[in-house]
Design goal:
mainly alpha
């Protein structure tokens, strides 16, 4: 986005406000869905926190592995969203149905190895971090339950992105929101042992998550097979579409894997500092995810939907204006939420832990994540725009160089080699977000991704050549 486009958006306030209204109309269901999702995760941490820092650490370390399945589903879902949004814009309904069907089938099959890993190696996986025995004992059953339902989670992730690609952001909200409310109720009931339910602590949290994964997957399949959605599941026949889904999905999936791979040594370093520091880091991430995460994620999805459909209709100038308006909207909303985190850091930290050491460290992490939040949201927005055009390689490069070169590199060199401790983690978080947004912004302005998207539309027969 050039400075001229941003100036044009600032000058044409009527059109910009109209775009903002469209963002709200399409984006509020995504934000609500994400808010409830992060609310579920926040509830998990709150309930675990009642049983001590070791329980929080068990959740944090286990979720490193569940994120592998998460990013696989997101990667395939990104491929489905890109093709679905473009084919919706160009009116190629048959190709759209093929894309959704093939993505769902691929996701379910790839989820099976994750489930097998969970059943066979949960304890060994956690033991890699050399945490206290209590953390392994607490976390292994949780990991088995959550990762064991990976095939169903993939169906949910791919299904929701496919619906969003058609412009339907309400149905995913109903499905994910409803399932996550059930999850929250189950976490509190089974974790704390309310009423006649047994107090299962972290195992109860895992049971609630696993149950909600299965419930949401069933709902997704019903939507696509009962006429609720415009999309119809069909017999897979077009190998060209499958190849394009895989080509788009691989960089997005590897991006998530790379981030997770870097998280292993990063979080091992934090555990080495102390369990309290690691728990504080988890609290800081949770506050960030709860306050700014839902909006940042919705802006990324909005960017994908609007860009994909605009390219399918060959409305390139409109896509650029939408980007400028989205940038302004992102800075305004995330800026207000970041300020809330800065001012309320002590309050937010006190909610999650009554351990003085953990709460004090959490306050600083909340401040650092607040400073980085606007940059993270802008990165997600511009990544979503490129991904809507099918360009997932450049966001991957920005992420992998940032996470290994800056987030992990600064933490290790400064915190361990130079002995600077946790202060270098704070510096690394900010530097990482500056770097990856700078790169993605540079690549957005090259516009090669628009030409590539139009070419792929023609190849799969969704767009007639001029």
């Amino acid at each position: 986005m050039s400075r001229g486009e941003l100036t044009r958006a600032l000058g044409d306030r009527r059109r910009t406000f109209a775009e903002w209204k469209r963002f709200v109309r399409l984006g509020w269901p995504i934000s609500v869905q994400s808010f409830v999702r992060t609310g579920m995760r926040t509830t998990d941490v709150l309930v675990a926190g009642l049983f001590g820092p070791a329980a929080i650490a068990a959740l944090g370390l286990s979720n490193l592995y569940t994120r592998l399945a998460l990013f696989t589903g997101i990667g395939i879902g990104t491929g489905s969203l890109a093709l679905t949004s473009q084919d919706t814009g160009s009116g190629a309904d048959a190709n759209r149905d093929q894309a959704v069907t093939q993505a769902l089938l691929l996701g379910f099959l790839i989820g099976i190895p994750f489930a097998l890993f969970a059943f066979l190696f949960s304890e060994q996986a956690l033991a890699l971090f050399a945490p206290p025995a209590e953390v392994i004992e607490t976390g292994a059953p949780y990991l088995l339950l959550v990762l064991g339902t990976a095939p169903f989670r993939h169906i949910v992730l791919i299904g929701e992105k496919s619906m969003q690609g058609t412009g339907d952001t309400m149905t995913p909200m109903y499905i994910r929101g409803g399932a996550n409310v059930v999850n929250i109720i189950g976490t509190v009931t089974l974790g704390l042992g309310l009423g006649p339910a047994p107090q299962l602590e972290v195992v109860g949290i895992g049971l609630a998550t696993a149950g909600s994964n299965v419930l949401a997957a069933v709902a997704v399949i019903l939507v696509f097979t009962t006429g609720w959605s415009d999309v119809n599941l069909v017999r897979p026949t077009d190998l060209t579409i499958a190849k394009q889904i895989v080509a788009i999905s691989i960089p997005r999936t590897v991006e998530g894997f790379s981030t997770t791979a870097a998280s292993f040594p990063l979080e091992a370093i934090l555990v080495a500092f102390s369990v309290e520091v690691y728990a504080a880091y988890t609290v800081g991430q949770t506050v960030r995810s709860q306050l700014t995460g839902p909006f940042a994620r919705s802006y990324g999805v909005l960017g994908s939907i609007l860009t994909g459909q605009a390219i399918g209709e060959k409305r390139i100038r409109d896509a650029h204006f939408s980007t400028a308006a989205l940038t302004l909207f992102c800075c305004l909303t995330i800026g207000i939420l970041s300020l809330t985190m800065l001012v309320g850091n002590e309050f937010f930290a006190s909610i999650f832990s009554d351990d003085a050491t953990t709460a004090e460290a959490a306050r600083t992490f909340i401040v650092v994540f607040a400073i980085a939040a606007p940059l993270e949201a802008l990165f997600r927005s511009y990544s979503g725009i490129l991904q809507g055009a099918g360009e997932t390689t450049k966001p991957f490069i920005a992420e992998i160089t940032g996470v290994f070169g800056l987030l992990l590199g600064i933490t290790y060199v400064g915190g361990i080699v130079l002995g600077g401790g946790v202060v270098f983690v704070y510096l690394a978080i900010v530097a990482y977000n500056v770097w990856r947004f700078g790169l993605i912004y540079f690549w957005y302005n090259q516009e090669f991704w628009i030409e590539n998207a139009l070419h792929h539309l023609e190849v799969r027969g969704s767009l007639e050549s001029d």
